[in-house]
Design goal:
alpha+beta; two-stranded parallel sheet
Length: about 100
């Protein structure tokens, strides 16, 4: 966050941070060291999303079947409840002519 806030005109510029396939973070929970690293990452994302020094928008994509696993990260389920947007799954359908 320090580097972002030091950018010229940081307060007047928008920053979009996209984390695709966030569910991959749950593969890091098999050891304590990796679990701590994953928790630190989530903490940074939450801090970026909630700070008000400069505009940062955090977008995380995740498969909905992992929503129940999010409770391993302190504060993350609450953040999801405030900002969640579910996109229906895409079904493979034959093209109509």
């Amino acid at each position: 966050m320090g580097r972002l806030s030091q950018q010229p005109d940081a307060a007047s510029r928008n920053c979009l941070l996209v984390v695709d396939q966030f569910e991959e973070i749950f593969s890091f929970t098999d050891s304590m060291a990796k679990r701590d690293e994953a928790a630190d990452f989530v903490d940074v994302m939450l801090a970026l999303a909630t700070q008000r020094d400069f505009p940062v928008f955090v977008v995380m994509t995740m498969r909905s079947d992992f929503l129940g696993d999010c409770d391993v990260f302190h504060g993350f389920p609450e953040a999801l409840n405030q900002s969640q947007y579910l996109v229906p799954g895409c079904l493979a359908r034959p093209a109509r002519r």
